[in-house]
Each structure stands twice: as C-alpha cells, then as structure tokens.
Specification:
DNA-binding, mainly alpha, homodimer, 61% helix, 11 helices, globular
DNA sequence: ACCTGAACACCGTTCAAGT
DNA sequence: ACCTGAACACCGTTCAAGT
C-alpha cells in the first residue's frame, strides 16, 4: 500500500530537476564554499541525486559554470551619469561580480560568456562607447579590450584552486611575491625595474583600475584600426 | 653480492632528482601531451619515481607550473627596430610562448610570474616604454596593462581542460559560439550589438592584437595617473 | 524522456617508513 | 636530507539499467 491518502511523511516530495534549479543550487554552494567546491558531485549531492543526473541538463562542468556566470551577470547595472561615469560603473559592477566569486573570473576568460545577460553587458558597453563619440570600428574592438581587462584583473586577484580550505582566499599572496621580486631586483640585471620599483607598485587597486579604464578608453578613442 | 664489478646491467643508474630535471621533463610532457596531462603523478612517472618525491622540490602543482613558465619565458627576445617595433616584438614573442602552450597562459594570470626570466621581460617592457618618452608613473602602470593583455588574450584562445583528448585543442570553438551569439543578437534587446555585429567580429587576430597594443600604448602615454 | 547506481580512470597531497 | 609506497580524500564522465 504505497502512498496511502495521497501524502507521505517520509520525504518532502522531491521536485523535478531543472537547469534553473541546478544553477541556483550551484550559486549557493559557490557563495558558501567557493567555486572549487562546486563540483558536479557536490552539486548533485545538494540536489539529493547522483552526478549523472546533471548531465541531462549540462554537457560538462564548464557549461554549468557558464550558466552560473550568466546568471550572476544579470546583477550588473550602470549608475546614472555621463557616458564615462556610466561606463566606469557598469564595468565596476561587472568587476564586483567577478571579485565576489573569485575563480569564476578565471573561467570567464576561457568561457567567453554568451548568455543573454552577458550579451546585454556587451551591448551596454558598446552603446556607451558610441555615445562617447568613438568611431564604430574602434568602439567595436574596444568592447573586448575593456571587458577583457576587467576579467583578467579579477582573475589575477583570485587564487589558484587550493587544497587548503582554511587559508585566506587570497591571491594577495601572489601580489606579495611579486612585490618582493620587484623590490629585490638586481640593478645590473634589471636596471629599469630596480630604478622604478616603487613606481611599479604605486597606487591602490582602485586607483590603478580607474586609471586603466581611462587609459583604455583614451587609446580606443584615438587609435585608428588601420595602421 | 650486490653490484659486483662496480656496474650493473639491470638499471641505467638513475641520476638524482633536481628541480631543473623535473622542469625539463615537465616541459617535454606539456609539449607532447598538453598541460592538463602534466600532473604530479604523470611527471613523477616520467621521472621513474612516485609523486611524493616531487614535493621535495616544489610545494605544489602551481609552483611546478610557475617554474616551467619562467623557463619558457627565457626564449623571449625583441627584434631590432625602434622602441615601438621592439615592444611589439617582445610582446609578440611572449604571446608566442603562451599560444604554443595554451593553458599555461591561464596559469600565468594567477601565478604572476616572478622568476628571473619573467623579471627580465618586465624590465625590457618598462625600458622600452621609458625609451618611448612615456612618463615613468604611466610607464610603470602600463607594463602590467600590456603584459596582462597579452596573457589574457592567450588564455582566451586556450580551451578549458578537456576530457576528450582527440578533439581539436581549440578555444576556437568558444570563438564560434561567441560569433553565433553576436550575429543572432535581438535588435530590440541588444540594439548596438545587432547593429554592429560585423564590426565586432571584424579583423584577424593579428590585426586586432597589433591594434590593441597600439591603443594600449597610446592610452598609457596620454593618460595622467591623477584624474 | 528523465533519472540513477555503480564503475572507470583518474587527480593532489600527506605521512610513516626507509636509506 | 632525500626518497618512497601506500593511503586519504577526492575528481569528471560514462553506461547499462530502470521508471
């Protein structure tokens, strides 16, 4: 006599899987345990099923990560202001997403996000460059350059996948190593680095990021696509 | 009576391990089987030992990859010409290294190469920007921007680690997906992308790379570090 | 069509024990 | 000090079998 009376008390009626649910659960895991923990096996476990079940909805782990990233990109939005201020703010909010989930930036470089939210971001950035009066061929190539810069910067600040869970989630450690290497440069082997180590290390990340975007826009606006 | 006569025929007298030898063997594996095959276990096997032995010389897999990358950067060299031509050629030869061993570029973004050869590359790029008459604070920040661009571009063209060994080693596939997404953009949702899809996709990788470097240098040269 | 248990073929890293 | 076998704690993906 299975399931008498139309309800059973043993299980809370497991709903059917769906890509949306899988993505939502994966984001929860990334948020609480980090990207490296969001494995097919771990996600399947959270969904109370076996890893094989996920392959009905995604072809592989990369595709799952891509779906997650597009979902997160949905949160990016420009604040009001002139075109340059809006550009800085869309790129800034994209950077925030990538910095919040370090490791996803690494994926984003290779994944080339192409979901609906990513496309909207692409469209916003292109629109802002055109609004700034930049020639269309330059603006078109510039979009890639700007998004690549933000993505790469976030990826740099994310640490490689760690075995040790307790350690800080840094990438700041890598920065310290670089700092040490530049400060310790041999004036004979590396004269320029040795002479200008402090200039190389100057500025806060925010200052450097803002400068980089201004410099990129400046270069994009003034450099003809035909040499 | 072990080892009579001072020589034995059973084994070719296994030499002692060394970081140099480990790196050399790892490069061989990367060259023939790809980075994703160059695991601690696979490298140890090639060295006819167990994986634990490698941990005497490197702290983890990332450190092994970093040592390999620095070794490979040793091959970069500028060709003669004015400072801009030399800049394009050093960056080009660095790009060649990263494109030849796709996947190492992905590591390079996070690893922040700091070995002797990487430092030399850093020094060359900084020297060339200064030779071009660029203000030292801008040149110093610009080095990062230029190397980051090259590294990120190479990383983009490398595919994610694949289970399937027979498939093309592309990343070109990702580009095709992007192409399709841009061409198929909805004119209402993404008006700018839809209107300028061809401009977004225009140019060969080489043309875009050369333009990007000119644009970066232009932006670096003309953008004050203080807004 | 969707879902699953179990298996296949791997990983990085640690550790106690040897030389 | 250097090296090692064996183990610990995982992976992604596939496949035959079920519903």
């Amino acid at each position: 006599m299975p399931n008498p009376g139309g309800s059973r008390r043993d299980r809370p009626a497991k709903p059917a899987l769906s890509l949306q649910w899988i993505v939502a659960e994966t984001i929860k895991i990334i948020r609480t345990e980090g990207l490296e923990r969001a494995t097919m096996r771990r996600v399947a476990q959270a969904l109370d099923t076996g890893p094989a079940s996920l392959y009905v909805y995604v072809a592989n782990t990369a595709e799952l990560h891509a779906a997650v990233l597009d979902e997160l990109i949905g949160a990016t939005e420009p604040e009001p202001g002139d075109w340059m201020a809006r550009l800085q703010s869309v790129l800034g909010s994209y950077a925030d997403v990538l910095f919040t989930y370090p490791g996803l930036a690494r994926s984003a470089l290779v994944l080339r996000p192409t979901g609906p939210h990513a496309l909207r971001l692409y469209d916003q950035v292109l629109g802002l460059l055109l609004e700034g009066g930049i020639a269309v061929e330059r603006a078109a190539w510039g979009v890639d350059l700007l998004l690549q810069h933000v993505t790469a910067t976030a990826a740099e600040h994310s640490a490689p996948a760690r075995a040790d869970v307790d350690a800080p989630p840094d990438g700041a450690a890598q920065m310290d190593v670089l700092r040490g290497a530049l400060r310790g440069a041999d004036p004979v082997e590396n004269p320029h680095v040795a002479a200008h180590a402090e200039a190389l290390l100057a500025g806060t990340p925010a200052q450097r990021q803002a400068w980089a975007i201004r410099a990129l826009v400046q270069g994009i606006a003034t450099t003809p696509t035909q040499s």
